[in-house]
Amino acid sequence: MKQAVPMILASLFAAGAISASAAQTDPSAAATTPAKIHIDAPFAKQLIVKEKAMHPEIQKLGLHAVPPGQTQSAIVANNLPEKIGKLSSPNDLKLVSSGNPVAVRIESGRFFDTFMPLHDQTGRIIGFLIMEVPFTTATTEDGAIQTGGVIRDEVQRRVPTLETLFGPETSN
Question: Which candidate, 115, 167, 144, 171, places its Cα nearest to that of 57?
């Protein structure tokens, strides 16, 4: 049974932040799709590594977007380099499809998996941030979303366009 795509998910498709094929939850589709793709996003990598260094209160920080020439959303930058290029999971895409920030309590890891839609400086959705906010930093979903919002806002101010993410590093 297929449900109608929520309006915000449609806007993510239109903005190029995710693709219909990336949002599929059909397990047979995953078998034909590579688990990782090549990513060349020096600006995004520099941005995320610096942002994570400014926020030791979070455990991980990753940026998901659709790279130029690709059709699927993937991790284009992460403070853990081995994560870069991994395709966004159907569950991640489902969580961000509302267009609203989401925090999921992960009891086993004692953190909130926090999802934040990411906009460029014109307000266009260009992807999403995922971060792990430990229970020592936030005790509720709302607290994790507040922490994530601060970090997301800092990142957004430095991203004029989606294309910028895939450009060269900056000197500042």
Answer: 144
